[in-house]
Amino acid sequence: MLNLQLGIRHAVGKQGPITLDLKSSAFDPKEKVWTRFPPEGSKYTPPHSSCDFKWKDYCPQVFRTLRKLFKVDAADYMLSLCGDQALRELSSPGKSGSFFYLTSNDQYMIKTMKKAEVKIFLKMLRAYYNHVRAFENTLVTKFFGLHCVKLAGANQKKVRFVIMGNLFCSEYSIHRRFDLKGSSLGRTTDKPQTEIDEYTTLKDLDLNFIFRLQKHWYQEFQRQVDRDCEFLEQENIMDYSLLVGVHFRDTRDRLLTGGSFDSDSSRGSSPHLSRGDTDPNRFAKIKLGSNMPIRAERTVRKTDIEPQIIGEPTGEFYDVVLYFGIIDILQDYDISKKLEHAYKSFQYDPTSISAVDPKQYARRFRDFVFKAFQEDKFDL
Ligand code: ATP
């Protein structure tokens, strides 16, 4: 962690001209800069108390420009990642074996990556840059830096990691989180109902809400999901998720646990948002996928026969604040995914398997997301 912080301080501290029209050479995967950090310090690096290591910045000019596009202040970025308060390690939320760290101000996440993921990312970097530049409201993860640390000495492993925005950075606490892919096979949490809490990542078949957006937000949502999926499909990417975080505005609703929903405590079906919100800037901070005050309608599954279908709406509405974005976008449809698809197809319905080709994946993802998110007909 100390090496990482030393490296970031070094990388961000370097000044350079910023132009949004980057030359293609800036995206060259070979565009990486190695720096040695001996403990005694060097001409370019400070003395430090960690071990001797090497640090690599991938495409530094591109990431510097991305940070500018995403309106990240350099000093703020550096303080968040390199301040005295250490980064918090999250108890590995994913299956892939990656490690996750969160900055103490909750703004940034660090995820360790496999070599293959770095390769995919570098291959799509130009397209990613063009996409996020063209669409300010894009839902795809915001990436701010890609680095590698290697301890000095033979046989030392490289640790590669990416710095990205935390979707759930908010003054509101997140009470429920859903990771939605649009596939059904194995898409439930493995936790017993009684253990589900605000840190449990629930999945497609656990989803028990339809999120109802106001008309203009819904239209913008549809447009942006279409564009984002088109971009991911073109880049041959699949296995991504829509990560959704739900904050219940009424304290009574926060007591809800996964499946055992006490209907006596439901909030009725008022189309109004909760009163009593005193923050005058609240509306200024609303963006697609961030801080969106909306109504969530509870659903129930009538049958397990077709589990991929979203449950029936119940007419029970909850005032919530919603956060969402498309995460885990660095998996392409490679040979291992093709094999996984072929292998599982013998046993299961091929359309229920997560690993399908990017075109089918995007179509299924969008179909599902447009059922889980709908227009709020009671919009005032
Ligand atoms: P898997 O292989 O299970 O899909 P993974 O190790 O590839 O997982 P991700 O899918 O990227 O990891 O993320 C795992 C979990 O980490 C997510 O379900 C979510 O809870 C959390 N997470 C990932 N990225 C973000 C983000 N940008 N903001 C907030 N939470 C995130």
TrEMBL record:
One GO term (biological process): phosphatidylinositol phosphate biosynthetic process
Record keywords: ATP-binding, Kinase, Nucleotide-binding, Transferase
SMART domains membership: PIPKc
Domain called PIPK: residue spans: 1-373
EC numbers on record: 2.7.1.68
Disordered: annotated segments: 259-280
Gene3D superfamilies named in the record: 2-Layer Sandwich (3.30.810.10), Phosphatidylinositol Phosphate Kinase II Beta (3.30.800.10)
SUPFAM superfamilies in UniProt: SAICAR synthase-like
GO molecular function terms noted in the UniProt entry: 1-phosphatidylinositol-4-phosphate 5-kinase activity; ATP binding
InterPro entries with a match to the protein in the record: PInositol-4-P-4/5-kinase_C_sf, PInositol-4-P-4/5-kinase_core, PInositol-4-P-5-kinase_N, PInositol-4/5-P-5/4-kinase
Name of the molecule in the record: 1-phosphatidylinositol-4-phosphate 5-kinase
Species of origin: Setaria viridis
